[in-house]
Amino acid sequence: MDGSWQNPLPPAARRFLSDLFPGEAAVFAPEETCVFGTDASRRQAIPAAVVRPETEEQVRELLRFAHAERIPILSRGRGTNTVGDCVPTAPGIVVSTARFADILEISEDDFVAVCRPGLVTADLQKALAQKRLFYPPDPASVRFSSLGGNAATCAGGMRALKYGVTRDFILGIRAVLPGGEVIVTGGRTHKNVAGLDLTRLLVGSEGTLAFFTEITAKLLPLPEATATALCAHADPDAALTAAGDVFRAGMLPAAMEFVDRTCLDAVAAITPLPWSGPAGAALLVRLDGSADAVAADLEKLGRVLAERSPLFVHTALDQAGQDALWAVRTMLNQASFRVAPDKISDDVTVPRGALRRVAAGIRAIAARAGLPVLVFGHVGDGNLHVNIMHRADDPAERHTALAAREEILDLALSLRGTLSGEHGVGLSKLPFLDRQIGPTERGLMRRIKAVFDPHGIMNPGKAY
């Protein structure tokens, strides 16, 4: 690090933080804070300080102080988001939830879990499975992203098709406002229509309104059985048509994922695919329920998929066999960097009926740009992930990649879609937001923020 770097916090502020967060719970040196100023978007800025609370009272004192001193506060889970939500837009205090990660309660009678925001979502799911309970949201980062981060961005995942997104499984939130006041929204009942739904407002607010200290999650019974079918087709259009056939047959899978040929080639470079020969695209379908129902649904699914003359259909009922089939999807992130060293990641969503058109349009944009573009994602939701692979150290190639991205976003909007299905807006989508949301609506959002955060200290410059 450059030894000339000057911490923007005055000495009195540093003393306050050191007293409130003793030992290593507060750090100020840039070589220690720099890792907390970046996320999966690969953007970076140096925080003025990083603190690691372990109690709600520490959070309250911090937000009283930051509100009075007008110091930006940036809530941070595990830094897995891809849109720059964790990157400081102004020198401020990053509040890491890594030490604020307990399961406070699991109620088998109420079907709720009460957790601190830093809890890794997969750790919650493992604890629940031992009690035959189920928290369905499963973003791709589920093994290392936090429940609070998932709530802040309203993360989705593959099971959103059948079960819904994070917003649908958060019953209540305890949070601290700038100034230190504690609010409690929602509760632990599975139905609640008293007053405005502040819980759903907070979920997806990207850290711009309040700091979550407790999250009450809705639970379901753990499905008895699961099964997976992997269906390969000669081209993407056939695979997407087959996806529509599944719905027309009256089936609602737990998950239905699409991967195009660019994705398949990338995965094949790091691990053998569960078939031989070329394929233009693949469709992965997961079923869950009782053992008898899953077996019957798998048989029906096989008949439906066979009607489009696939290259093959592989099925699995045991966990190891399913994991082998799902590797085509789960290995994509690491496989993508075999294609090129850098990528622009987007997730656009269109109405289900527009999936074939948006996929064809993205292929045409990729061909014009001369860049490999990985297209995959949650086709049951109309939600496609688009990775534009390129070399960022080549200015011309970077410019081409950015131009292609803008074309893809405009394409999704032209089909009555959205700029983001589950990643949020953060910094990366903000320049394009006025193409989707009008000035009156954005003005309302800013006025709502001002009620929660009068001085604009919570994750400033993000989301809206």
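That was protein one. Protein two is written in the same sequence-then-structure order:
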Amino acid sequence: MTVDEGTVDKPEVALVEDERNVRELYLDVLGARGLNVVPLDSVAAAEAYLARHEPDLLVLDVKLGDGDGLMLLDRLRGRGFRTPVIVMTAFGTVERAVQALRAGASDFLVKPFGNERLVSSVEAALESGRRLVELELAAPTLGPGTEAVRALIGAEGGLRDVVALLPRVAASDATVLVRGESGTGKELVARAIHAASSRLDGPFIPVNCAALPSSLLESELFGFERGVFTGAHARHKGLIEAAEGGTLFLDEIGDMSLEAQSRLLRVLQERQLTRIGGREPVSVDLRVIAATHRDLDAMAASGQFRSDLLYRLAVIPIHLPPLRERVRDIPGLIHHFLQKHAAKKSLRPPLPDAETLRRAASWPWPGNVRELENFVERAVVLGRFDPESLRPAQPAKASPAPAPASVGAQEAAASSGEGTAPVLPLREAVARAERAAVIAALQAANGQKTAAARLLGVSYKTLFNKIHEHDIREELHIG
């Protein structure tokens, strides 16, 4: 940060805007908030200034007289520029917003916007920057031999960078967003952060946002007052209040309804909540760690997820690579799960042979670490590994389609039992058809249970029960 006389301790904001009247307006609005604003009118002026200074925040217009602001942002990020950036444009499209977010912008403002929207965005971005500085200065508190790190087996390979970051993350109270495919260990990371933090003695409350209907999720998270709905016979404190002094882990945050997102945003901004049906705010002290396998940036750009909540959640972003990108970790993971499940079941662990390890290294593991653990647990129970289960299925050879038979021929074949599929008991046939329909709906809805239920013409609760009844959960890695 550049420090001039009279600006000590004032956050410095570099403002790049080529329209003079607009630039002066923003200068007045932000200056009135106690910020040291440096006005710049072009890409060239911005590059010259940023080559010599490191402000606390860059507010950048996209369409400038001598160039494109997003291209400037790309160049800056390529040179290791770490300052938070807010992008402004009068040409607001979903594609442009996604481009800005992926280029590393903290926020995307579409002109015209109100003064309060500008101020709130700037304050949130400055807070994010301060959190990152705190992490850089924090002393490591998570050693390689601690129980929290031992839970993240394989950290010597693809998770090395993640584990190296955990000490600083744990030392801060900043909100964390863990991204990664299903089964990569997002909850393990959240538990490791909690276990190494100053909140260790407080509760760790995990909540799966995809496992409950939106109305039920809200009442469980935020609590409710007596009499607010049928069955509310007494005041109920929600899981946010239950996490007081500890950590709230919100898994699959991308499945949370927009209304619940608004309530959560208030908790993060004001550290207060209002129970459903209540009027008095309740102060809360907790840390929030969220996780998702979805592309929240694209969801925010299309209006499916609140962008202001995304920025609040992703103060510290952590990405977990899929197991297929961590091949070196597989032998260590197999050894860990062998010891874990053999001890739990009081059995002698089988030893994997060379063929098992070879196939394990080449298997794509769509279910990631969870799928690998299931594979190892099955080997412990059976007393041996089955490498054949990791062989890709061979596609069946296509056979010529038979010519359509007449109705009379079909009836004759049915009466003689020839040329027909095996007859299943009605109950089993119905169950198979039901299971196939649920899987097809979930796949068509990209795992969104509310949309899948709508496709099937059933309630969310019915779909939820069918997923469990037919054991679909692990197969599709949902919920």
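The radius of gyration is 27 Å. Keep this in mind for the problem set.
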